Amino acid sequence: MGKFMTVFKFHLREAITSKSFIIGNLITLIIIVGIFGFSHFSSKESKDKVAFINSTTYQTNIKQLNKGLDSVKLVSGEKSSIGKLKQQVKAGDLDGIVEVKEKNGSPALSYTYKSFADQELVAILTQKVQHIGINKTITDSKVDPNVATKLLAPIPVESIALKDTTGTVGIVYIFVFLMYLLILGRGQMIANTITAEKASRVMEIMIPKVKPIYMMYGKILVQLVIGLADIVVMILGFLISYSLGWFNGKQFSLLGFHIDLSNLTPFIIVCFIIYFILGFLLYAIGYAAVGAVVSRTEDLSSVSFPIILCIMAAFFVGMTSIFSPESTLVTVCSYIPITSPIVTFSRILSGEAGYMEMGITIVILLASIALLNYAANRIYLNGVMNYSGKVKFKDVVQMAQKH
């Protein structure tokens, strides 16, 4: 155990004092804080400017129309200058043109834009202009306003969600992507380190003094600690941005997903740590095994490709689980070890996985790690001193069987 701790401390000290670790985490911190800072300050900048033209006899009030438009400001335009306004849209001086026309005795909208339509603007203006048209029809037809109000009153809708997951969708997205990114990146680092040591013949010096298995687990646990440190740095970036008031924990959106941080309970955090550690160990052991069987770092990508495919499959199923956590595919994949860490955690956040499913998936993962560990130990022991060039799949199987 003493030799293992020596190896572990050596690799840990080497990892945390490396320029790549320090600069990488510093850049991560700056990017996270920068994203929130940019979002915060850019939201205070001038709104998109859209020209508004009324080509009908309907009375419109530009100030009333601007109410409820958070990101757009309507400015008055003339029908006679519509050609010039279109040139301004092409040049980027205007973000669009909205024209009210009359069609079959009712108001209609014409929306001109350069590349991307603002659907929120169209929806709000459609409702407001329609309301103006209805009021004019009521006045012209001399309909009793009270009767018209009753006829046009919207039907009240009471929404009852048995499982309200609107606030957790964004959290699922962030954590699934985070788990995928760290497992892939840190796992690849383990394989690269082992292959580099093997290629430089350092293994030949170390093996007589330290058991190869100690070196393998030392690297795996160090990368696990570094992965957890990466998470802490990311959380620190969120905390700094939050303390500066750059986002509201209950009105926070990222990449189009609404995130309510009040749903981030201690239970969810513990579940993430458990599934991240189990998923990391599962893939890290596999990466360590493939890193030991190749003699050159340039051969590593082809050997590790099946592992990368497995991680990508877990990620894509995890993304699918955001919107359909109860689907058959997602449910089945939550019990398959290679996809279970990401998919099961996603289903927990969505409220689809109970304590029994969590217990079963954790037991399956532990059993899979134990079996993979047994095979990886033999592959590593027989592979680190093998310099026979290109290794085929049958060679790896023979290494796993050899005592």
TrEMBL record:
<dbReference type="Pfam" id="PF12698">
    <property type="entry name" value="ABC2_membrane_3"/>
</dbReference>
<dbReference type="GO" id="GO:0005886">
    <property type="term" value="C:plasma membrane"/>
</dbReference>
<dbReference type="InterPro" id="IPR013525">
    <property type="entry name" value="ABC2_TM"/>
</dbReference>
<keyword id="KW-1133">Transmembrane helix</keyword>
<dbReference type="InterPro" id="IPR051449">
    <property type="entry name" value="ABC-2_transporter_component"/>
</dbReference>
<keyword id="KW-1003">Cell membrane</keyword>
<keyword id="KW-0472">Membrane</keyword>
<dbReference type="GO" id="GO:0140359">
    <property type="term" value="F:ABC-type transporter activity"/>
</dbReference>
<feature type="transmembrane region" description="Helical">
    <location>
        <begin position="166"/>
        <end position="184"/>
    </location>
</feature>
<feature type="transmembrane region" description="Helical">
    <location>
        <begin position="220"/>
        <end position="247"/>
    </location>
</feature>
<feature type="transmembrane region" description="Helical">
    <location>
        <begin position="358"/>
        <end position="376"/>
    </location>
</feature>
<feature type="transmembrane region" description="Helical">
    <location>
        <begin position="267"/>
        <end position="290"/>
    </location>
</feature>
<feature type="domain" description="ABC-2 type transporter transmembrane">
    <location>
        <begin position="19"/>
        <end position="372"/>
    </location>
</feature>
<keyword id="KW-0812">Transmembrane</keyword>
<protein>
    <recommendedName>
        <fullName>ABC-2 type transporter transmembrane domain-containing protein</fullName>
    </recommendedName>
</protein>
<feature type="transmembrane region" description="Helical">
    <location>
        <begin position="21"/>
        <end position="41"/>
    </location>
</feature>
<feature type="transmembrane region" description="Helical">
    <location>
        <begin position="302"/>
        <end position="323"/>
    </location>
</feature>
